[in-house]
Amino acid sequence: YSGSNFLRQRLVLSTISGRPVVISDIRPKDEEPGLRDYEASFVRLLDKLCDGSDISIDETGFDLIFVNFLLHGQSAQFF
């Protein structure tokens, strides 16, 4: 996939289905290109919820590779 449209939905569907997702060209022409802070926080949350996830974001934030394995079946405390 390319672009930032439905980024969070794509990540959630990847988590539920257990299939990896590659998203490229995330806001390449914006004044502030790449992932936003809230999107990066959401990726970190998914990383905590998944067991053995592999997340790769390039330095510019244009490209994101999200590979997850299993959702945790236990409760998590984030505060």
From TrEMBL:
SUPFAM superfamilies the record matches: EPT/RTPC-like (SSF55205)
Superkingdom as given in the UniProt entry: Eukaryota
Ranges for domain RNA 3'-terminal phosphate cyclase: 2-59
Database matches in InterPro entries: RNA3'_phos_cyclase_dom (IPR023797), RNA3'_phos_cyclase_dom_sf (IPR037136), RNA3'_term_phos_cyc (IPR000228), RNA3'P_cycl/enolpyr_Trfase_a/b (IPR013792)
Official protein name in the record: RNA 3'-terminal phosphate cyclase domain-containing protein
Record organism: Durusdinium trenchii
